[in-house]
Amino acid sequence: CYDALTGEKKFEKEFNDGFYSSPIIADGKLYIMDRGGVTHILKADASGTIIGEPELGERGDAVPAMADGLIYIRGNEYLYCFGK
């Protein structure tokens, strides 16, 4: 993560599995789903603090979608919807 105005590096993270999907920001959080089906959730700020890393239970390559307070994630086999 770099500051867009100054070019200063704010943080850098290493993850075990590769990424095919694009990151998405919603509700102040950065969501990145790796190819193993783990959604890495970080604070969308200069800290890069990891909030959680829930596992889907199957591989996944799609970008998570957000709508009406719900999160939709497509795995290789199923479509999931999470929320209240």
Summing up helix and strand content along with how strands pair, one would put the structural category as: mainly beta
Give the neighbour order of strands across the main sheet: 1-2-3-4
The strand count comes to 7
**Average predicted confidence as pLDDT:** 91
**Unreliable runs, pLDDT <50, ≥5 residues?**
none
Main sheet specs:
4 strands, antiparallel
Query: If you compute it from the alpha carbons, what radius of gyration comes out, rounded to the nearest whole angstrom?
Result: 13 Å
Helix content: under 10%
Strand percentage: 25-35%
> What's the order of the H and E elements?
EEEEEEE
Outline type:
globular
Distance between the termini: 31 Å
Number of helices: 0
Task: Kindly describe this structure.
This protein has 84 residues and is mostly beta strands. It contains no helices and 7 strands. Strands 1-2-3-4 form a 4-stranded antiparallel β-sheet, with no helix packed on it. The model has no long low-confidence stretch (mean pLDDT 91).
Task: Offer a quick outline of the entry.
The chain has 84 residues and is mainly beta.
List keywords for this structure.
84 residues; mainly beta; globular; four-stranded antiparallel beta sheet; three-stranded antiparallel beta sheet
